[in-house]
Amino acid sequence: MEKLVIEGGSRLGGEISVSGSKNTALTLMSAALLADGPMKLSNIPALRDINTFAQVIGFTGAEIRYDPITHELEMDPSSLTRFEAPYELVKKMRASFYMLGALLGKGGAARVSLPGGCAWGPRPVDLHLRGLEALGAEIKFEHGNVVAHALGGRLRGGVFRFEPSSVGATVNLLLAAVTAKGYSRLENAACEPDVVVFCELLTAMGAKIGGIGTHTLEVEGVPMLRAADFTNCPDRIELGTFMLTAAMAGKSGEVLRMTGAEPKHLGDAFLTAFTQTGTPFSWGTNFVEVVVPEKIQPVNVETGIYPGFPTDLQAQWTVMMTQADGNSKLRDTVYTDRFKHIPELMRMGANAIVVGNEVVIQGNTALQGAHVMSTDLRASVSLVMGALVAEGETHVHRIYHLDRGYEDIEGKLTRAGAVIRREKYDEWAGPDEGNEG
Ligand code: UD1
User: Fold this and answer.
1) Whose CA is nearest to atom 37 of ligand 1?
2) What 8-state DSSP symbol labels residue 388?
3) Which among 95, 219, 359, 432 is least buried, having the fewest CB atoms inside 10 angstroms?
């Protein structure tokens, strides 16, 4: 396995580039399965999750080629013959469940392994399944797989209300609805930027979708979608992560510039809370500049659906708040049990108490380097952030979680002045070889 070894205390400066959005890229790749021929997607980040999903797509027989240097992905679904996504691939990444909607939309049949739980709770898929049934799919379960069919090869379309609003279920139902025989209405649909950009690609491919960017989506099914080349949007969670890192670990008074960025995708709640920390920032076409504050003001936040504060930034916010000038509270209303990073941060000297879906964070805390364990993607980047301001060396273990969603993070942070190296280690070795035992 690999770990990052981070020397704390170097203050960051200069420029950090933001890659293409991981979560949006996965929706775009799913949409490309519905095309009638080859198409090219640009600004696709070089990440483990993209490779995993490329394997899922390749399993169907569709052609897929990805170039991590140009960040271009070419797909041709003409050769697709297997309407299946097996357990071995789905278990690696929950978003593989998009294959259910995509294959139903493509040919009216799908056999997709049920995803399991995840590091921070059960994460159900009931809305995906009930929603597809509302569009006319017949669904049964066989040996851990969802087997779905559309009578006559095409769904009829229908009305469904998401409760709660779900990004993944909205994407899955859209994939199925755009080629249905009739009309569909999706109520309380997600309007996260990932969904909006996904709808923009579907529209470019000939889909008829009304209400894009609102909570009610209306779809008139069309028989077939055409191929369309498309450029992915920047990753808003990576941008938010770097803005928080800059404010916390930058040289006081200096400007850190994030390039390739789309700050509006972060939503009002994050941008307001960030302003309230006393960190001045500004933006222009494709960039954000953060002026590193002398002191960070403590700010309470509560996560919510877009334009609420993103749950995918709460672990990073928590680390920043350990450095704030006072105590603060954070509540996660989207995933009420997403606090696996807290015990690891406490090993670094953080003082935080989890009560239900809330965490109380003590500010003005001097963090210390330690051996810590990544438990999921956003938790692992929060440990890297803590390590940057900690005294001494931190070893962040199991960084395969980090590689799922942050392209070349050590390269990007090193170029901004951090001292980081990647090392291989033996997970099962004794304590003196760097393992916690
Ligand atoms: C997506 C993102 C993930 C982010 C999350 C919330 C991708 C690949 N992942 O995940 O990074 O943290 O949005 O912004 O884009 N729910 C149900 N039943 C369902 C589906 C969801 O009850 O069938 C609930 C969930 O438990 C959760 C809420 O709906 O409380 C929102 O989850 P959802 O938007 O579906 O998250 P994902 O799409 O899985």
Assistant:
1) 168
2) H
3) 432
